[in-house]
């Protein structure tokens, strides 16, 4: 499945060279905002990550994509089922942080067209201070939640 918007393409993570994912996830500017990423991103970690993301696709029929801008890998994310909720995640390469809103808006077009997704949640680490874009999208702060023994800020955006 491929989604397009202004040079943005959604592709399968398995189609991205593993070295690109490893380099991306090993960047300290990325791990700074990923409190659950407490391990070294070596080839085994990437293989495990890809297997896990593939399992979500098989289980739920939806999951995380690779994001490309004009054919170049810029990051990954998408919708992952967490209990009864669809959580949206976005992990961009640092030099591509400015693409976040365009990618998110493209993904939300998808979510609004999918009857399985009446709303989307966003879990953000407290280290994320710039939340204006999320609020401008219409997301409402639910409050603090604990996920995997880690505190996050939870937002919710109605899609239906």
Overview of the molecule:
The structure is a single chain. The chain is an alpha+beta fold. It has helices spanning 18-26, 28-31, 43-60, 100-112, 132-136; strands at 4-5, 8-12, 64-69, 72-82, 85-92, 119-124, 140-147, 150-158. α1 (18-26) crosses α3 (43-60). The mean pLDDT is 89.
Short description, anyone?
31% of the residues lie in helices and 34% in strands. The protein has helices at 18-26, 28-31, 43-60, 100-112, 132-136, and strands spanning 4-5, 8-12, 64-69, 72-82, 85-92, 119-124, 140-147, 150-158.
The low-confidence runs, each spanning 5 or more residues with pLDDT under 50, are none
What integer value in Å does the Rg equal?
15 Å
SSE run = EEHHHEEEHEHEE
Proportion of beta-strand residues:
25-35%
Q: Alpha-carbon distance between the termini?
A: 22 Å
What is the number of beta strands?
8
Describe the sheet with the most strands: 8 strands, mixed
- Fraction of residues in helices? 25-40%
Main-sheet strand order equals 1-2-3-4-5-6-8-7
Shape, principal axes of CA atoms = globular
Q: What structural category do the secondary elements indicate?
A: alpha+beta
Q: Total helix count? A: 5
Roughly what is the average pLDDT, rounded to an integer?
A: 89
